């Protein structure tokens, strides 16, 4: 269980690094940090529980049970924090993405992150491809298209044209 929790916490933190330009709230990682701390404590307590079982110590097993209950409460807290902050993170990401949209020029670091995000999440824009029509980049290109990162991966001839929205 400790190894599984460590993996989940590490995966969340590692995934956060890919999207840290969009998540400016440092509290977004709080549930993942709690999960990793709980995993470390679970591993140590698991060893103690094994030793108490082998020695058949009633006090050791009682202490082990109490600690397991505390760990369960911490896991529930991490789950609740994840649910509570979900909407806040969603709002923060949308606001940050809108500001990154305004900085998009196809060449800068924000553009690279935006392209990566759209390719990885198989999306286009904050809500949909029409979000691009209000950006400075869209108006400056004058070719009525969105970045190629908006194209579906199985569409090899996609040009990002808004005239073919089925390819986006």
Secondary structure blueprint with pairings:
Blueprint: H1 2-18, H2 30-55, H3 58-103, H4 109-121, H5 136-141
Helix pairs in contact: 1-2, 2-3
Report on the structure:
There is one protein chain. With 168 residues, this protein is mainly α. The protein has a domain at 104-167: Cd81 Antigen, Extracellular Domain, Chain: A, CATH 1.10.1450. Helix content is 64%, strand content 0%. It is built from 5 helices and no strands. The protein has helices at residues 2-18, 30-55, 58-103, 109-121, 136-141. The two termini are 41 Å apart. Keywords: Membrane, Transmembrane, Transmembrane helix. It is found in: Membrane.
- What is the rounded Rg? 23 Å
Low-confidence stretches: none
CATH fold assignment of the domain at 104-167: Cd81 Antigen, Extracellular Domain, Chain: A
Tell me the number of strands.
Answer: 0
Structural class: mainly alpha
Shape: elongated
Main location: membrane
Subcellular location: Membrane
Membrane topology: Multi-pass membrane protein
Protein name: TSN36 protein
Features:
168 residues; 64% helix; 5 helices; Cd81 Antigen, Extracellular Domain, Chain: A; mainly alpha; elongated; single chain
